[in-house]
Amino acid sequence: MFDLGWQEFMLIAFVAVVVVGPRDLPRVVRSVSTYIRKARSVAREFQNSLEEVAREAELDDLRKEAKSISGGNLEKKMNEWVDPSGETQKEMERIASQAKDVASSRPVDSPAEDKPDASPEPAAEQPPAAEEKPKPETKSAEKSAAAGQ
């Protein structure tokens, strides 16, 4: 705060001893330290209040920005942020139109889907599945199974 070196401090102490006297010096030092503590406390409170005002000002800016976003067209703002050139939007519209074209060219009534064949083909007979031996889950079970065979 005050850039005091040891020479300045010694000069202040010498002047204090001469002016106040050695008998009253401890009382004066105590009262001066009390005032210094109070001044530091006031300065700390002032600094905290300034920081709070700065935070509130920043929050006010954020509130204004949020209100401008919510008050306006949110979709338009998002498109401006995400796709400023509009290329992605054009590509999405092109894909959607192609999907509509494909869907409109497909026949609506498909006889294969609506009516099953009158004579279904017989299912090919599958050979019976070979019985599987249960697999041991641990190494000790594998060892005991190998020893048992």
List keywords for this structure.
transmembrane helix; 70% helix; 149 residues; single chain; TatA/B/E; mainly alpha
Compact summary:
The chain has 149 residues and is mostly helical.
What would you note in describing this structure?
The structure is a single chain. The chain has 149 residues and is mainly alpha-helical. It has a domain at 73-103. Helix content is 70%, strand content 0%. The protein contains six helices and no strands. Residues 66-149 are annotated as: Disordered. Residues 130-142 have a biased composition (Basic and acidic residues). One of its GO terms (molecular function) is protein transmembrane transporter activity. Residues 120-129 have a biased composition (Low complexity). InterPro entries: TatA/B/E, TatB.
